From TrEMBL:
Gene3D superfamilies: DD-peptidase/beta-lactamase superfamily (3.40.710.10). Belongs to the glutaminase family. PANTHER family: GLUTAMINASE. It catalyses: L-glutamine + H2O = L-glutamate + NH4(+). Homotetramer. Its EC number is 3.5.1.2. InterPro entries: Beta-lactam/transpept-like (IPR012338), Glutaminase (IPR015868). It comes from Salegentibacter flavus. The lineage of its organism: Bacteria, Pseudomonadati, Bacteroidota, Flavobacteriia, Flavobacteriales. This is Glutaminase.
């Protein structure tokens, strides 16, 4: 497969002027990102790399990072994790409070904000230094010891994060939060502030395309069963309340973030990351969605 030719075609077909969305503004620092940015990177199972555009530039990965925290919680808790968080698509906005009342404080899945905050509670409770251990995990699976939080983004999230704080307090009142609120939201805001490039994200997500093993070393980070479950959750819950549309158009498991990034995997084939900060009305990268649809169409490869 000539992936570079496919990427060149995608780059030539698409332009930020052709989309109607807007850069995320509810986190003040994200509103400052140049809307013209556009990059894409594929990392293949045979260790080849293909890319275009701004694929080496770091950006705030936001909710994409929830896949990493979920992975760490699964390593710690195994199947007991699902007593604290469910595995169903939400059908509601990612920061919904009302759904929690109906379901007695158990979030629908680990990728909506409430679910990721329960995961954060688990990591804060069980790890000695959760923020550093998160960094260690991400640095290990990318092979890059320089990956770090964006302190400006984390501070910006904290300054406007009242709804997330409300979610933690509400779940604590319903008995599904064990730790104090402050360390949970501090971890969560830092988690979402992780700064990575498309290349680094494609490298990190290769473990989900490679049955839980780091491609370069062969070290098993996650069991094949855990990877199966994570990929299933990405397929059904990875795009807020637009997961069905992504499955319909693209046909890959993946995860998006309001920083404009999307990562997707094709098991045993490749992992791919794309970044364009302009979001559609559901909070997903508008160009990113289109670029990945073109990738699976032009390659003729999806999981379906």
């Amino acid at each position: 497969m000539d992936y570079q030719k496919i990427l060149n075609t995608i780059e030539s077909e698409m332009n930020y002027r052709d989309v109607e969305g807007k850069v995320a503004s509810y986190i003040p620092e994200l509103a400052k990102v140049d809307p013209r940015k556009f990059g894409m990177h594929i990392y293949c199972g045979d260790k080849q790399h293909f890319c275009f555009g701004d694929s080496d530039e770091n950006f705030s990965i936001q909710s994409i990072a929830k896949v990493f925290s979920l992975s760490m919680a699964m390593i710690l808790m195994g199947e007991d994790l699902w007593k604290r968080v469910d595995v169903e698509p939400s059908g509601d906005p990612f920061n919904s409070l009302t759904q929690l009342e109906y379901e007695q404080g158990v979030p629908r899945n680990p990728f909506i904000n409430a679910g990721a905050l329960v995961i954060s509670d688990i990591l804060v409770a069980q790890l000695e230094d959760p923020k550093q251990e998160l960094l260690d995990f991400v640095r290990k699976i990318t092979g890059n010891p320089e990956i770090d939080f964006d302190k400006k983004i984390a501070a910006s999230e904290k300054s406007t994060g009242y709804r997330n704080i409300a979610l933690v307090n509400y779940m604590k009142a319903l008995g599904n939060i064990k730790c104090e609120v402050e360390p949970i939201v501090d971890f969560y805001f830092n988690l979402c502030s992780l700064s990575m490039s498309c290349k680094e994200l494609a490298q990190a997500f290769m473990i989900y395309a490679n049955k839980g093993k780091i491609l370069d070393t062969g070290e098993e980070i996650l069991t094949p069963t855990s990877v199966k479950r994570i990929n299933a959750l990405m397929q059904t819950c990875g795009f807020y309340d637009e997961a069905g549309e992504f499955s319909f158009e693209v046909g890959l498991p993946g995860k998006s973030g309001v920083g404009g990034g999307i990562v997707a995997i094709h098991p045993d084939q490749y992992s791919v990351a794309v970044w364009s900060p302009i979001l559609n009305h559901k909070g997903n990268s508008e160009l990113g969605m289109k670029a990945l649809e073109r990738l699976t169409t032009l390659s003729g490869l999806s999981v379906f």
